[in-house]
Specification:
The complex is a heterodimer of chains A (1219) and B (306). Chain A folds into six domains: 79 residues, no CATH class; 128 residues, Distorted Sandwich (Calcium-transporting ATPase, cytoplasmic transduction domain A), CATH 2.70.150; 75 residues, no CATH class; 210 residues, Rossmann fold; 302 residues, Calcium-transporting ATPase, cytoplasmic domain N; 231 residues, no CATH class. Chain A contains 41 helices and 36 strands. In chain A, the strands form seven sheets. In chain A, strands 18, 19, 22, 23, 24, 25, 26, 27, 28 and 29 form a ten-stranded antiparallel β-sheet that branches. Chain A has a nine-stranded mixed β-sheet with strand order 16-36-35-34-17-30-33-32-31, sandwiched between helices. Chain A has a six-stranded antiparallel β-sheet with strand order 3-2-4-13-5-11, with no helix packed on it. Chain B has a five-stranded antiparallel β-sheet with strand order 1-9-3-7-6. Chain B has a four-stranded antiparallel β-sheet with strand order 2-8-4-5, with no helix packed on it. Chain B has two domains: 63 residues; 224 residues, no CATH class. Chain B has eight helices and nine strands. Classes of the chains: A alpha+beta (1219), B alpha+beta (306). Chain A: This is Phospholipid-transporting ATPase. Chain A: Belongs to the cation transport ATPase (P-type) (TC 3.A.3) family. Type IV subfamily. Chain A: It is a multi-pass membrane protein.
């Protein structure tokens, strides 16, 4: 296989990668101690010592149930619901003579309810299982019996030697031994771990990098001692004992499970952590079962109802006991017709207390109708249907990726309507995670006409504010959108494009500028063999954007060898003969830049050029710049440098200051426009100067002292000076479509938005501006540990001191922030309400977050954060994201929603009340862990404001209504009981009761839960404030719930008393017949069915044919049922035998009573609503009114209004011109 | 589709002032006439109610509950004469009811104490599981009809005369037809009924099938509330105003031990049934209230328009 080894670039020779061999002393001292005790026998998994350690296999399971424990565990889950236990007990007892009704009428609904829910659980778990099976059965090559065999992932053991090929996932956490590159480097993509799409470089130990074929592995034996399994993705401490020597291992040798090998043909490695020990699995916290707040409150209501139930049952039993005891006194029988002398224990006057107690049990069952058994199953059905609607929504369907929104769990639909805080990931969630070169300032001139998102949002805001002057700005770049866009490039300027830059006054500077962009980077070009297109694998997307920009302008970077960088350049003196062409392959190729914007216009002549790469001075966060030293074909030594403005301007040479002022000004403008800027400069080096510097540099690099890093930096500093400024380039991390608008809407809906990102602070802040999370007028509070004194402490390496100092500094910063806000508040109150309060944005970095989350400072941090209108946490790890989410969730006690797209967001998604995964370009991990998945961030707006609002409203209404209808029904039972000496005789026939919840009232509720809308989707979006009904939980507040309950009580009183008073005791029809038990039951039940269904008709806002069908259908069903049931033989139909046809229907009184009762039962609610809409309208009432008025006006004067609008617009324009 | 996009054509009722007021007005417009009509119908019914439970007990026994019980349980002849004056012309049929009070025919034990299968067919005469303790005689023979309801059958009897003229009471068709046809079998005859040491109520002629024992059938339709009327028969002649009707009744039924009243009711019936003002009053009240609310809302909207 050695022939397959690429003669890759020996990056290790370059300065940048050499510094990875930094000092390990401190943490490595701990190896072998507690927490660092893992022993791995490489290439020897059967080693007796290791076998004894019993490491877990590589089998991974994420399911909740197994086949064996499904039934008991799922049942247990079911009976964690109090109501279900109650119904189970009732079902058991209903077989005894205690029961007031027959057993099947209780048992069947319960079985249906529990069966349906368990089936749902089972299906969900099965899906997880199939995913696991897929992962566990992936194949990997393992070195066994002196050759590489393919085995399944799950059979992998610790210590195995694996070979992973290009674009394969690592099956476990693997220590890199060697790769297809000679120097043992490889590239990995960690998208599934931290969401970053750029490639990371991993580096094998030098001692092992020569191991690259079966022969060498035959002899290979080594022992790795390392840390125990943990969840930290960014550290690894270990040591490799090989050939009797110990070599330190760090995260640089670690290839983590679920990351992907890129740009490298293959690697060899030793498995260290398997299965659930791997870092990625450690990071996956158990998927918690989430329940919505409404459901939690519903439980409370159920408890209340239980107490009511127990209370009424108890009071009834006491009365019953007293009545029963009185039946025998002094040997005389009072109610002799009950034969008190010969009574079973349930009615025995001589054992009245016992009879009372037994009656208590009976009553518990009888009044069980207060507790809606079908509530849970109805809600479950409704939620599933709601999810289907969410899935089907065309407005949340992304055509580009062909992905609709997907509700992965249906439990949380209504929670979507109550979100108080959104915690969002940035990369890939707010942004597309693709950088675009947008603007450049070259030689003091700004190029690039495309407006950035920020500019656009600013402009729309200005326009809204009535500032029309913006209109005067130049032509909008969007006019020629028809051109095919290139990923990573959004630069439009006719002065530069199509080779036109050669005609610009500073053409030579422009040329140098783009040359720097094309050369000064560490990217690798990848040519697509079929199309010939070149794409770039860069370490960061902005780097790629620069290279693409250079390519589009005419500096195509197409090849890189260890020592050379190959470019195809457009010569700006195209007219002249290129006499240097013999220098190279003497071809002057006409390249058609396929897919490029130029292709249509003209073909460009490009000349290949090559540059000899001498040194790369890598980018680091402290240096904030990167340089390369190259020798061009004219044998000039050039130092090309790009970096952050803060470090670059001080390195300019005195005569390089030419257009510094303009550039600075431009950079400021770019930053305000939300762009990331990079200052581009270059310098010509003298041969002598370079030689002497190189010697020094090499020496520094090979030195072994502890401060080598500093030394290297210092020497690099020496050459990066006296630079000649070329200009500044600006890239935009393109926001996803509609993000600023979406965020603005959400903010207007009263939702707080936090951004948690792994990005650098500067980037995060810029994006904050871009998506209108931060605004210019906002004051920023920055909490960071990037201060010089802490940096100094870090260099000393005194851990305790660092911890102490950082704690102190954070505490101080938080305190300052709080006092700042306080003083701002005070000052605004002094100024009076007309001055709007200064808004604050909090920006905090990961390290500070870590400190403040650990050391009991959560409270004060949260106090600070909750006072800021937006919060950005940058440089945060997945775990921190989850911690912050938990903090926010627990401290506010309100609903939190997190949005993320990468595997790094999984913890956060699971921790939040609702997790929304963006099913974008990155892996599926986030989606798998989420509760809802959407294709783009902007769909969140519709998901929350429309579906969330609707679902919340529906579920809240539905539950309230459920309680109403069951209380109405249950209380009539109670009133009847009071007239039957609390003997436990139900007012209705058994089957009226059994079917009441199932057939006569269930469908309208479900229709309400699925279809009702207070206002249309358009109005939901138009008036985001409507959403606050959910945040404040108005529709499910205690007053409202209790109001509905008392409405139920009132209805039941009206139904029972009006019915009995008007029908008893006189004849109820012309033939002199009187009302008996069966007829009264049927009449009352008729009234109840009518009343609750009409109540439903009254309380819904949205009548489609579905509603009409189910509401009037349910009432019709009741009559049909009565007729059919009445025709059954009397042994089955008992008291209901022919009750409607023979007794009730011919009676006028029956119909009159129904009418009276129904109308009277509806009046209280109708009056309340009429009163409320008039005097204390809810927000949706106002909107409905508005809509109505608008439509009335619109109908009468639609055309004139349009005309008027147009006229107004025109006059405004005219007036403006005159000015 | 519009269905999946939740954009079905829908009517969205909104409580605008116009709507509120017209709904209230509509209700009052409908309800007040109905109420007036009902009241009128109710007033149209002539009803004579005579409470006789105390009056039909010898004066000596009236003082004390125990004495009352003693009297009613004794085997003396308990005939009692009442005279009723007809307040208004009563058109036939005049329905004769007995009304009991404080009698819990809806007690769970009582309601369940019957056997529908046994009542229905001869073959299931032994199906008496629900009937305890009135299921079998002491020597194990099934009682037909079994159970507490049948056992406690009302046994007061009434006969009416006007002057010297005997007024016939038609006791056929006083029960529901479906009961006679489907619930009580033509081949089921009372056996072993009221033979135990404790006699409850009326005894039945064991040569008449249950389907023709209409008093039993009426009684077996248990009442809904502790105060109830049951149809006793019909007088099918005109009763003129100020007619005095002599009632000869046998006061047999023991309501004294549970302080129940007994009333004899003669009533006509019209399309609305018997005499009860409640419905009419309720209709008028609700209608009036709605009218009042309609007015109030109108005033409010006029005085303080939005």
């Amino acid at each position: 296989m050695p022939e397959a080894r690429k003669t890759g670039i020996l990056f290790s020779k370059l300065y940048s990668f050499a510094c990875f061999l930094c000092n390990f002393e401190d943490s490595h001292a701990q190896i072998g101690q507690r927490g660092y005790s893992r022993l791995v026998y490489c290439n020897d998994p059967d080693n007796p010592v290791q076998v004894q350690l019993k490491y877990r296999g590589n089998y991974v399971s994420t399911t909740k149930y197994t086949v064996a424990n499904f039934i008991p565990k799922a049942l247990f889950e079911q009976f964690r619901r109090v109501a279900n236990i109650y119904f189970l007990v009732v079902a058991c007892v209903s077989f005894s003579p205690l029961a007031p009704y027959s057993a099947p009428s209780v048992l069947i609904p319960l079985l249906v309810v529990i069966g349906a829910t368990m089936a749902k659980e089972g299906v969900e778990d099965w899906r997880r299982r199939t995913q696991d099976i897929e992962a566990n059965n992936r194949k990997v090559k393992v070195y066994r019996n002196y050759r590489f065999d393919e085995i399944k992932w799950k059979e992998l053991r610790v210590g195995d030697l694996v070979k992973v090929c290009k674009n394969e996932y690592f099956p476990a956490d693997v220590v890199l031994l060697s790769s297809s590159y000679e120097d043992g480097i490889c590239y990995v993509e960690t998208m599934n771990l931290d969401g970053e799409t750029n490639l990371k470089l991993k580096h094998a130990l030098e001692v092992t990098s020569h191991l690259c074929d079966g022969e060498s592995f035959r002899q290979f034996r080594a022992v790795i001692k390392c840390e125990d399994p943990n969840e930290n993705l960014y550290t690894f401490v270990g040591a490799l004992r090989y050939d009797g020597k110990e070599y330190p291992l760090s995260i640089k040798q670690m290839l983590l499970r679920d990351s992907k090998l890129k740009n490298t043909e293959f690697i060899y490695g030793v498995v260290v952590f398997t299965g659930h020990d791997t870092k990625v699995m450690r990071n996956a916290t158990d998927p918690p079962s989430k329940r919505s707040k409404i459901e939690k409150r519903m439980d409370k209501i159920i408890y209340i109802l239980f107490s009511t139930l127990i209370l009424t049952a108890f009071v009834g039993s006491v009365f019953f006991g007293i009545e029963t005891r009185k039946d025998i006194s002094d040997g005389k029988y009072r109610r002799w017709y009950l034969r008190p002398d010969d009574a079973p224990v349930f009615y025995d006057p001589r054992r009245a207390p016992l009879a009372g107690f037994l009656h208590f049990l009976t009553a518990l069952m009888l009044y069980g109708y207060l507790i809606p058994i079908s509530l849970y199953v109805s809600i479950e059905i409704v939620k599933v249907l709601q999810s289907i609607f969410i899935n089907q929504d065309q407005d949340m369907y992304d055509e580009e990726t062909d992905r609709p929104a997907h509700a992965r769990t249906s439990n949380l639909n209504e929670e979507l309507g109550q979100v108080y805080t959104i915690l969002s990931d940035k990369t890939g969630t707010l942004t597309c995670n693709s950088m675009e070169f947008v603007k450049g300032s070259i030689a003091g001139t700004v190029y690039g006409r495309v407006m950035t998102e920020v500019e656009r949002t600013l402009m729309t805001k200005m326009r809204e504010a009535g500032d029309v002057s913006i209109d005067q700005q130049g032509p909008d770049g969007d006019s020629d959108d028809s051109r095919k866009s290139i990923r990573g490039f959004n630069f439009r300027d006719e002065r530069i494009m199509n080779g036109q830059w050669v005609n610009e006054p500073n053409a030579d500077i422009i040329q140098k500028f783009f040359r720097v962009l094309a050369i000064c980077h560490t990217a690798v070009p990848v040519e697509n063999k079929e199309t010939g297109e070149i794409s770039y694998e860069a370490e960061s997307p902005d780097e790629a954007a620069f290279i693409i920009a250079a390519r589009e302008v005419g500096f195509e970077f197409y090849g890189r060898t260890q020592k050379r960088i190959l470019l195809r350049e457009l010569d700006y003196e195209t007219g002249k003969k290129v006499d240097r062409s013999y220098f190279f392959y003497s071809y002057s190729q006409t390249v058609s830049l396929a897919n490029s914007s130029l292709s249509e216009i003209k073909l460009l002549e490009l000349v290949p050029r090559e540059y000899e790469l001498l040194q790369v001075l890598e980018f680091s966060s402290s240096r904030k710049r990167m340089s390369v030293i190259v020798r061009n074909m004219e044998n000039q030594l050039l130092l090309l440098c790009k970096g952050a403005d803060s470090v670059m301007f001080e390195r300019l040479s005195k005569d390089g200051w030419l257009f510094e002022a303009e550039t600075k000004d431009h950079i400021k403008k770019f930053a305000e426009a939300g762009l990331r800027t990079m200052v581009i400069a270059f310098r010509e080096l003298g041969e002598e100067e370079y030689k002497s510097w190189e010697d020094e540099f090499e020496k520094a690099k090979t030195s072994v002292t502890a401060d080598r890093e500093m030394l290297v930096d210092e020497i690099a500093d020496k050459i990066e000076k006296d630079l000649f400024l070329l200009g500044a380039a600006a890239v935009e991390d393109k926001l996803q479509q509609g993000v600023p608008e979406c965020i603005e809407k959400l903010a207007r809906a009263g939702i707080k938005i936090w951004v948690l990102t792994g990005d650098k602070m500067e980037t995060a802040v810029n994006i904050g501006y871009a998506c209108s999370l931060l605004r210019q007028e906002m004051k920023q509070i920055v909490i960071t540990l990037d201060s010089p004194d802490i940096g100094a402490l870090e260099k000393q390496g005194d851990k305790e001191a660092i911890a102490k100092a950082s704690l102190e500094s954070i505490r101080k910063q938080i305190r300052e922030g709080i006092s700042q806000i306080k003083s701002a508040k005070e000052s605004t109150t002094e100024l009076g309400p007309q001055k709007s309060a200064i808004e604050f944005g909090l920006i905090i970095d990961g390290k500070s977050l870590d400190v403040s989350l650990k050391k009991n400072m959560e409270k004060s941090l949260f106090e600070l954060a909750s006072n800021c209108s937006s919060v950005i946490c940058c440089r945060s790890s997945p775990k921190q994201k989850a911690l912050v989410t938990r903090l926010v969730k627990n401290e506010t006690g309100k609903t939190t929603l997190s949005v993320g797209d990468g595997a790094n967001d999984v913890g956060m998604l699971q921790e939040a009340d609702i997790g929304v995964g963006i099913s974008g370009v990155e892996g599926r991990q986030a989606v798998m862990a989420s509760d809802y998945s959407i294709a783009q961030f902007r769909f969140l707006e519709r998901l929350l404001l429309v579906h969330g609002h609707w679902c919340y409203r529906r579920i809240a209404m539905m539950i309230c209504y459920f309680f109403y209808k069951n209380i109405t029904f249950g209380m009539t039972l109670l009133w009847f009981e009071a007239h039957a000496s609390f003997s436990g005789q139900p007012a209705y026939n058994d089957w009226y009761m059994a079917f009441y919840n199932v057939f006569f009232t269930s469908l309208p509720v479900i229709a309400l839960g699925v279809f009702d809308q207070d206002v249309s989707a358009r109005l939901c979006l138009q008036y985001p404030l409507l959403y606050s009904e959910g945040i404040e939980n108005i529709l499910f507040s205690w007053p409202r719930i209790l109001g509905w309950m008392s409405n139920g009580v009132i209805s039941s009183i009206i139904i029972f008393f009006v019915t009995t008073k008007s029908m008893i005791p006189q004849a109820f029809r012309k033939d002199g017949q009187v009302v008996d038990y069966g007829i009264l039951g049927a009449t009352m039940c008729t009234c109840v069915v009518w009343a609750v269904n009409c109540q439903m008709a009254l309380s819904i806002n949205y009548f489609t044919w579905v509603q009409h069908l189910v509401i009037w259908g349910s009432i019709g069903l009741w009559y049909i049922f009565l007729v059919i049931y009445g025709f059954l033989p009397p042994t089955l139909s008992t008291t209901a035998h022919q009750v409607l046809g023979e007794a009730c229907a011919p009676s006028v009184l029956y119909w009159l009573v129904t009418l009276l009762v129904v109308i009277s039962a509806l009046l209280p609610y109708f009056f309340y609503r009429a009163f409320q809409t008039r005097f204390r309208p809810m927000y949706h009432d106002i909107i409905q009114m508005k809509r109505l008025e608008e439509s009335e006006i619109g109908n009468s004067a639609e055309l004139p209004r349009k005309v008027k609008d147009k006229l107004r617009h025109l006059t405004e324009r005219l007036m403006h011109r005159e000015l | 589709s519009r269905f999946t996009q939740q954009e079905l054509p829908a009517c969205k009722p909104i409580l605008t002032p116009k709507w509120v007021i017209s709904v209230f007005l509509l209700v009052s417009i409908v309800f007040v006439p109905i109420g007036v009509a009902s009241l009128y119908a109710s007033r149209d019914v002539v009803e004579i109610i005579d409470r006789y439970d105390t009056d039909c007990i010898p004066v000596a026994n009236r003082t004390d509950k125990d004495l009352k019980i003693q009297y009613i349980q004794s085997s003396v002849e308990k005939t009692c004469n009442r005279s009723l004056r007809v307040p208004k012309h009563m058109k036939p049929p005049v329905y004769v009811y007995y009304q009991l009070d404080n009698f819990y025919q809806n007690h769970r034990r009582y309601v369940k104490s019957r056997s529908d299968t046994q009542l229905r067919s001869n073959s299931s005469a032994n199906d008496t599981d629900n009937c305890k303790p009135e299921d079998t005689t002491s020597n194990g023979l099934s009682i037909v009809p079994c159970g507490l309801i049948a056992w406690s059958l009302f046994n007061d009897t009434y006969s009416f005369s006007r002057g010297n003229e005997q007024l016939d009471i038609n006791k056929t068709d006083i029960s529901w037809k479906s009961d006679r046809d489907h619930k009580f079998g033509k081949d089921v005859y009372p056996t072993n009924f009221q033979n135990g040491n404790l006699t409850g109520g009326k005894k039945l002629n064991s040569s008449i099938p249950l389907s023709e024992q209409e008093d039993l059938i009426v009684w077996m339709r248990t009442a809904a509330l502790p105060t109830f009327r049951k149809l006793y028969g019909r007088i099918e002649v005109d009763l003129q105003e100020n007619d005095v009707i002599q009632v000869t009744l046998e006061n047999n039924y023991n309501t004294y031990s549970f302080n129940g009243k007994k009333k004899l009711v003669l009533s006509t019936a019209n399309w609305l049934g018997g005499k009860n003002d409640f419905l009419g009053i309720a209709y008028v009240t609700v209608g009036g209230l709605c009218f009042f609310l309609a007015l109030t809302f109108t005033v409010v909207y006029l005085v303080k328009p939005r």
